Amino acid sequence: MNKFSKYVGLDVHQETVAVAVADTAGEVRYVGEIVNTPEVIAKLVAQLKRGTGRLAFCYEAGPCGYTICRQLRELKQDCQVVAPSLIPWKPGERVKTDRRDALSLARLYRAGELSPVWIPDQAQEALRDLTRAREDMKHLQRQAKQRLLSFLSRHGHRYTGRSKWTQAHWRCLEGIRFARPEQQIVLQEYIDTVLVLSQK
Predict the structure, then answer these.
(1) What region holds the Transposase IS110-like N-terminal domain (predicted)?
(2) Checking DSSP bridges between strand 78-82 and strand 16-23, what pairing results, if any?
(3) Which of 40, 109, 131, 172 has its CA 20 to 30 A from that of 26?
């Protein structure tokens, strides 16, 4: 016996959410598209709860994160975020639309064919964001250093010391002079970018 009376599929985007509902009795219908704001989400929940039992919501994991899931759970609603790569699709379903995606999510969720992902709490997500940001900064720093070295190499400037990015290497970089002022500006821009990223 199903523990929910309605299974709600949400196709979530930054500005909008397409909504479909699969009733336990069998009907699957498209409700429509709403604006993706907390106020409108809360209004949707209130509308769907009228004269019914428990609701179950789901949407695909993606760039919009877990904000809607957390809001729905705060509203005492069941919500799962599901893995997009594990959603079963029929071979002929090549044309994807928000409406079709919402209807498919509602239908598959009711059938128990979706795989939920682990949802971090806000503290865990904040720590993960910090880790990702540091990794991003390190990646940008490596790119900036490579661009600087490539620029110098194109103009015949190669560091012959033992190790790059040491104090001796920085003294060498600061002593390089180009005949053209435009290229001196380029050099300084590259150096400044590396220095800024090194402080992150």
Answers:
(1) 8-154
(2) unpaired
(3) 40
pLDDT of residue 27: 86
Low-confidence ranges of the chain (pLDDT < 50): 1
Residues 127, 131, 134, CA angle at the centre, nearest 5°?
140
Instruction: Determine the angle formed by the axes of helices 38-49 and 67-74, rounding to 10 degrees.
Output: 50
Strand order in the sheet with 55-60: 28-35, 16-23, 6-12, 55-60, 78-82
Give Cβ neighbours of residue 36 (< 8 Å, ≥ 6 apart): 12, 13, 14, 15, 16, 17, 64, 68
Cα maximum dimension of the chain: 81
- Within 8 A by CB and 6+ apart from 163, the residues are 169
Structure tokens at 40: 């409108």
pTM of the model: 0.74
What is the per-residue pLDDT across 114-125, written as a single tens digit (0 to 9) for each? Answer: 999 999 999 999
- pLDDT score at 3: 80
Distance CA 54, CA 26 (A): 16
